[in-house]
Amino acid sequence: NQELRATNGRLDSLIEHLYTQRDVVALDVVDIKDELHELKEVTKQQSATADRYAISAQLQAETVKIQAENIRIMIEALNLKQA
After folding, report:
1. What is the pLDDT of residues 41-51, one digit of tens each?
2. Which helix (H) or strand (E) holds 1?
3. The whole model's pTM is what?
């Protein structure tokens, strides 16, 4: 009988502990959800920045290509002048 009361007491303590921890776990879940949302936003911003860098690099490559063609034409014109 006394063992049963002791077991019931331990069970009551465990149940009380689990109920109090439930709120803590719920708050942790909310915190984790908020952090994931922030990470998602940061990732979106980084992706947009990477896209802008890629476009910029592409434009610079096109500019270099045009400049190289202009230099080739100028050299060709100089060669024709000297001929």
Report:
1. 999 999 999 99
2. none
3. 0.57
